[in-house]
Amino acid sequence: MKFGKTLIAGISLAVLGLGIGYTASQTVEASGAEYYVAVNGSDSNAGTSAAPWKTLQHAADTAGPGSTVYVRGGVYNQKLKITKSGSADQGPITFANYSGETPVIDGTGLPVSGTEGIVDLADVNYVTIQGFEIRNYTTTASNVMPVGIYVHGAGGNITLSKNKIHDIKNTSTPAGIDLLGRDAHGIAVYGTKAPESIHDVTIDGNELYNLVLGSSETLVLNGNVDTFAVTNNIIHDNDNIGIDVIGFEGKSPNSAYDQARNGIISGNKVYNITSNNNPSYGKKLPNNSNSADGIYVDGGKDSIIERNYSYNNDIGVEIASEHAGKATSNITIRSNFIYNNRLTGIAMGGYDTDRGSTVGCHIVNNTLYKNDTIGDGSGQLYVQYDTQNNVIRNNIFVASSTDVLIYNEYTKNSGNVVDYNLYFAPGGSSDASWTWKNKEYTGFAAYKNGTGNDAHSVFADPLLVNPAAGDLHLKAGSPAIDKGLTGSDIGSLDIDGQPRIQGASVNIGADE
């Protein structure tokens, strides 16, 4: 959640340096019964293809480990509450669309009680939800939160895949300036117990759009969530944060476990995310808050953000902590295309001196192109309050018309290493601007001499293929080719899933 002034806010995890033996494609094949649900069925039927049930809930109450519930096409104006688990040996309980058909779970007219998913998974293990359209779960009441798919409590081995979730909305108008209690989510995973976590969660290939979220997020992992993969999702046209990994909000009853962690966010496309028409950021619309991140880590730790496209958002990617004395830590942002975002490309650190810090994170091999489209001067990389021991290396930074590349207005900045980057700006090397520890430098030479940063970096046109169309790949002859510094943090794949090193050394930027 964010308030106030522009708040700046399969795939194997074992090979990502996290020491996690979990893959996004890790599933257990169902070996049990097959059941069927259809809009013209009856719960007194046998649940077979020829005699299907009518309600999703009857199927959820009946299906056991290893069972697959095939749901035929049609509109189901019903809630689905899953409290039964599959198992490691027998397989998951799977709810899936019948081949070639799209079942629609439609919340029109259904009440929302507390924080509630129209598809709601409580304290379950080995459950898969696949191939549904989930829509129209809305409220005009404050202090309740509609969610498309809500996973909560403890449990694990949960897969949410190939679902289309849209028009989940909270349009309440509570009194007060901040409109507290006006919240919704598309997908939410809340680890609300301890020490038992929600673990081994795969959220893959979903589309989430046209959500009215208030001060909440499109897709969120919050609290005691350990080991997750958010991959290949398309998230767009929502009025707050796209993907969020959160800690320190008190979702876990034990603060030692209150951080989402050990995750990968990969292969997603996040675009058209903005808070500017969200009354939770100011009732007078548009409010020009420019506060919604495409991808955000707020207090999470030990995770990787790689091979994503984040564009036309308020902020491309942010790693920060909104909680004083608490750090977002050990996050790697690598091999992403980040472009045409309104406020900045990548932001890090607390948005003011009452916030937390960003510690031990790596921003490597990204291509950032003409963010800061509103001309605010936050540049391509916005280094905020309290940043410690971070690495910023092998990135391409192309400035917008402001010519600002890095903007760091705070002096609480220690141990950060910035090198082997490629910079370019419309005004050329002499007019390009960097601000570091609240001191502005105009010109590349002045910046390097004044800060000691970027001793091995260059200022040159990176020769991108077609950046106006979002194609930030390198042309032959680009000065970024083979000019980066290799290291364990660069990963094994580039933006296209090709080997990260193909020549004498790694390229600068996301494209190898």
TrEMBL record:
<protein>
    <recommendedName>
        <fullName>Right handed beta helix domain-containing protein</fullName>
    </recommendedName>
</protein>
<keyword id="KW-0732">Signal</keyword>
<dbReference type="InterPro" id="IPR039448">
    <property type="entry name" value="Beta_helix"/>
</dbReference>
<dbReference type="InterPro" id="IPR052052">
    <property type="entry name" value="Polysaccharide_Lyase_9"/>
</dbReference>
<dbReference type="InterPro" id="IPR059226">
    <property type="entry name" value="Choice_anch_Q_dom"/>
</dbReference>
<keyword id="KW-0964">Secreted</keyword>
<feature type="signal peptide">
    <location>
        <begin position="1"/>
        <end position="24"/>
    </location>
</feature>
<dbReference type="InterPro" id="IPR011050">
    <property type="entry name" value="Pectin_lyase_fold/virulence"/>
</dbReference>
<feature type="domain" description="Right handed beta helix">
    <location>
        <begin position="148"/>
        <end position="367"/>
    </location>
</feature>
<dbReference type="Pfam" id="PF13229">
    <property type="entry name" value="Beta_helix"/>
</dbReference>
<dbReference type="InterPro" id="IPR006626">
    <property type="entry name" value="PbH1"/>
</dbReference>
<dbReference type="InterPro" id="IPR012334">
    <property type="entry name" value="Pectin_lyas_fold"/>
</dbReference>
